[in-house]
Structure formats: C-alpha cells, structure tokens
C-alpha cells in the first residue's frame, strides 16, 4: 500500500475538496461513527433534516460522540440540529461549538468545540468539504440536473466499500486511453483530455458491447470536479449518467461508491424504463468492477513508464497535486495541467478538434 508521500503529491496527506461521506439514506438521527481523512468522525441528521459531520471526540473527556448510551436514560441525543455527548451530555451544534452543558451556566471556554466539516446533500449523496487549511470551499459541488428531472430514473448508489489503493491510482484512470481495449473490450473512436482549474475531463467515443448497436458510437463526457467526484454523461442510443465517488479513508485506503441514472422513454418512467435502468446500473457496475479488480491487485505506479502514445498521465498528476498543497499554490499546479491534450495515435474529440 503506497502513501501520499510515496507518490510525492505534496505537503498534505489528505486532499482538499468535496468528498462523499455517505449515501443520503445512510444519515439518520442516530449518530453514526465514520472514519475518513484519517480521522474518527460522527455523522448525524438534525431535526431540521440537516446532516452534520463533526470530529468524533468530545473535548471534555474524549468520549466518542457516536458511542451508545447503554442505560437508555436521557437517550435523546439529537436536539434541534445539535448532538449531545453520551458521557456528560455536553451539546454541540453542527458548527462544532458546544452550546449547552447541563450542569454549568457560565461562559464556556473557546476550546469547548470540535472540528466541523461543511456538508451538502446533493443527488442522493452527502458530501463533506475536507480542507487541510480549514478554509471555506473554493468551488461548489457540481450540478446534476438529471437527478431532479422527472424523466430520469434515479439510483441507489452501490457502496463498494474500501480498497487498499491510494486514490492516485483511481485518478490515473481519467487519462488512461489505452486500458479501454484490454480491460473493457472497447474500441475507441476518439479520446481527449482537458484540464481547467479544479476540473479534469475525459472526452471519449467508441463502440460499446452493450450500450450501442453494431457500428454505433457512444459519446462520453466524464469529468472530475475536484479530486473526489466523477460524473460521466453517456449520450448515443441511450442517455445515462454514471457517478463515481471516492474518498480517502486512511493514507492509501479509499472508499468507493458508484451509481448510474438513465433517461426513461416515458415521463414518468415506465416499469420497463425502471427495469432498463436496473440493467444499466448492473452493467456500469460490472464495467467499473473490471477497473476495480486491476486496482485491487496492482502494485502502486509511483512512476509511470509512460510512452508517447499513452494518455497524458503527467498532466493529470500535475492537476491532482493542486489538492495536496496549499491553496495559494493551486494556480501553479493548474497551469501545468490546463488545456486540451490529445493522445498520440488517437483521434481527438470532435469538440476539441473544432476548437483548434
Ligand atoms: S466527555 Fe463528552 S461531555 Fe464529558
Ligand atoms: Fe476503466
């Protein structure tokens, strides 16, 4: 298992960005222990419906905020959008600040707080902003308007659990033009990589065993917004969006989720549309599992023996480095990645070629 330092990514062990922490339905009023970004955390949903993510350990005497109270006495742990510690019942708001101690009226010391992470609930996911510099988010969670569109069939995300692989290996996939044939049995008609700020994009087209008929082309626009959220739009004979989310758990261990949504042929989608969606999600999962299997068993690619006809791994890694270094240096890393990059030996995406 290789670490952030092994890849030479930068000074932070865990990257800055929006990361999935749980599926929306996983957050309930009972506090839940999570482990992510090398930290013990507590996730809960307040009475308003707002989800909150806090560091797990109470600053009073260190109890885990998600620990159970076996007596059941005073079991009301969530009050409004605040959570009470199970040990002496100090109460913390979603901002992490202690706002009540049942046996003390005076002003509380400033240290009576835990670290709180900004949380957003979008397209069936709970995302938290992780920032080693503890600053406010500098980009938003991407939009997925299809999720709100009555013509589309939503998904329940597949929780693929943790793999002992550094997220760098998953990120490399974005520009890996040459794995499509061997891993997915896919023939590429064109391939392009495009980086712009916090966005890393792959534009590809090709035949697909199941999603196109003979000679048909499936166009794919797959893009990362920050280091943890990949949205891939498929257009052709079927419109679908694949969502792949990955979050560092420990240094070198990654949690992965996957989902697909599809446009139904009827509004609202018919039973047939729902069945078709179920097949797509399975199909997407099995395609993704082909990558997963390689990642699970491979040695870390600390240095890529890159050939001129490989994809632009070096640009992609430069792009990824921005998230492991102070925000003040982000523009420098982006500058080494920004732009449209063709892969020698492969045609360019029609839009990229037109831009030239
Ligand atoms: S340890 Fe949390 S209130 Fe005492
Ligand atoms: Fe792949």
From TrEMBL:
Its cofactor is Fe cation. InterPro entries: Cholesterol_7-desaturase, KshA-like_C, Rieske_2Fe-2S, Rieske_2Fe-2S_sf. This is Rieske (2Fe-2S) protein. It comes from the Bacteria. CDD domains: Rieske_RO_Alpha_N. The keyword Cell membrane does not apply. The keyword Hydrolase does not apply. Residues 18-128 form the Rieske domain. It comes from Sphingobium agri.
């Amino acid at each position: 298992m290789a670490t952030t330092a092994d890849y030479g990514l930068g000074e932070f062990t865990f990257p800055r960005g929006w990361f999935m922490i749980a599926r929306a339905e996983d957050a309930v009023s009972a506090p839940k222990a999570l482990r992510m970004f090398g930290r013990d955390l507590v996730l809960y949903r307040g009475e308003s419906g707002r989800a909150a993510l806090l560091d797990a350990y109470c600053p009073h005497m260190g109890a885990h905020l998600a620990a159970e109270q076996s007596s059941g006495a005073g079991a009301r742990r969530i009050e409004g959008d605040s959570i009470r510690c199970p040990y002496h019942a100090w109460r913390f708001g979603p901002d992490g600040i202690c706002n009540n101690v049942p046996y003390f009226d005076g002003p509380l010391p400033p240290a009576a707080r835990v670290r709180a992470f900004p949380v957003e609930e979008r397209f069936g996911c709970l995302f938290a902003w992780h920032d080693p510099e503890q600053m406010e988010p500098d980009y938003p969670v991407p939009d997925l308007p299809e999720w709100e569109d009555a013509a589309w069939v939503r998904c329940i995300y597949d929780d693929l659990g943790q793999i002992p692989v550094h997220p760098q290996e998953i990120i490399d996939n974005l520009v890996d033009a040459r794995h499509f044939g061997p891993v997915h049995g896919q023939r590429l008609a064109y391939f392009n990589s495009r980086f712009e700020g916090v966005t890393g994009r792959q534009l590809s087209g090709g035949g697909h065993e199941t999603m196109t008929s003979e000679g048909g082309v499936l166009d794919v626009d797959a893009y990362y917004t920050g280091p943890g959220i990949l949205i891939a739009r498929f257009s052709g004979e079927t419109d679908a969006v694949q969502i792949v989310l990955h979050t560092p758990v420990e240094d070198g261990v990654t949690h992965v989720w996957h989902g697909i949504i599809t446009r139904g042929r009827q509004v609202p989608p018919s039973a047939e549309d729902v069945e078709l969606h179920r097949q797509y999600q399975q199909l997407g999962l099995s395609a993704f599992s082909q990558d997963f299997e390689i990642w699970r068993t491979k040695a870390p690619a600390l240095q890529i023996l890159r050939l001129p006809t490989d994809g632009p791994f070096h640009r992609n890694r430069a792009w990824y480095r921005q998230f492991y270094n102070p925000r003040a240096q982000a523009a420098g890393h982006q500058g080494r990645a920004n732009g449209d990059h063709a892969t020698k030996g492969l045609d360019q995406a029609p839009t990229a070629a037109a831009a030239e």
